[in-house]
């Protein structure tokens, strides 16, 4: 989705002012996509140019010269097409974590395993923090600040996505472990040398930054 | 924390077999679990998770190193004392088949107490309390087969905590359950520390369930390779939000 589709969707409920669209867009996207009003007007201008949105003249009795916007028939059709288009990961998105693992494998099994370990620990740390927060709120009888459906769905998406990354990291680990014998010294409780991998833990923000998918 | 760890592993090695056939399940594990702490243990199949719990529950003995419960080295206990430890101090929940099918729910929960010589009447009273804890006090006299998988695991938990045991060892207790039942079982496990001060060691493959833990231990090939504490990360959604942008 781009701002463009977001605005078409909001306008399908009836005419809106530019500022109104900004506010509704931010609420509808659960707070993860702040917009400035300039972006809204630029996008509306393009939609208007393409014949998907029409301008309504300011109502005569109001002094404020605010323009409102409405969907045209072509706009409605474009929106319908967007709703029914299923996103396909073809070619696969350039996922940061996936690419990092692919590069790591190039540096040997132990390095790749160390990357698996540090990323898994970080992702689970975030899930722990989210869980603790949720349980504290439940215990205190506090309604979570994100009681809006949109925000809840964002939270769910984040958690489920972290879980999916963790599953994938488990698969990476299994495949790496199956791909060859570790160079361990045989015998009792041998101290295994730390794999030559990243020892410093990156910050969660850096570890988890993903590129926009489209 | 100044408390003695309720469970402690010191340089623990466990191997099976001998000579060329020798398999190392644990290769020098050090771990201290505080009273009331929830620890999740994760790692690929065969990495030594169950062995870790077996040693903690005195079901097996280490090849080297020491396992201590409340400061007592399990190696210093007689077999009789080890059995008593399993009935009084350390509870165990397995993936499935925890219950005796020919005994009712409450009889199953009474079992460790009765084996420990507690009179039936008193044992029943304590067992009913434990059934209360797991929310099944209305169904005391039904047989295990009459319960759902999730309820059976809750009965197993009741049996594993009855008599104020201080450590609960749970080896993939949700492995055979559907999502809703699994959630309930883990929610229940996670409340035990605050209600009774029980420490919980939970082996799980599910990040969702591991996230309840104060600490997550990662095992690979018999060694602890990393650890994640709930307190390591500020409780903020911001880093995750970056993922959706
Ligand atoms: N009684 C046993 N005899 C021989 N090998 C065993 C025994 N128990 C466990 N092992 C081996 O020890 C390793 C760790 O097993 P286990 O602790 O069951 O792993 P996990 O629970 O993580 O899947 C595995 O290689 C397993 O085959
Ligand atoms: Mg196991």
Provide the fold topology:
The complex is a heterodimer of chains A (214) and B (245).
Chain A: H1 3-11, E1 16-17, H2 18-28, H3 37-49, E2 53-56, E3 68-71, H4 73-84, H5 96-105, H6 109-139, H7 149-178, H8 204-208
Antiparallel strand pairs in A: 1-3, 2-3
Chain B: E1 7-16, E2 23-33, E3 38-42, H1 49-56, E4 64-69, E5 72-73, H2 79-88, E6 90-93, H3 105-115, H4 120-133, H5 149-161, E7 167-171, H6 179-196, E8 199-203, H7 207-210, E9 215-220, E10 223-229, H8 238-244
Parallel strand pairs in B: 3-8, 3-9, 6-7, 7-8
Antiparallel strand pairs in B: 1-2, 1-4, 4-5, 9-10
The complex binds adenosine-5'-diphosphate and magnesium ion.
Descriptive labels:
heterodimer; A: mainly alpha; 3-stranded antiparallel beta sheet; 8 helices; B: 245 residues; alpha/beta; Rossmann fold; 6-stranded mixed beta sheet; 25% strand; binds adenosine-5'-diphosphate; binds magnesium ion
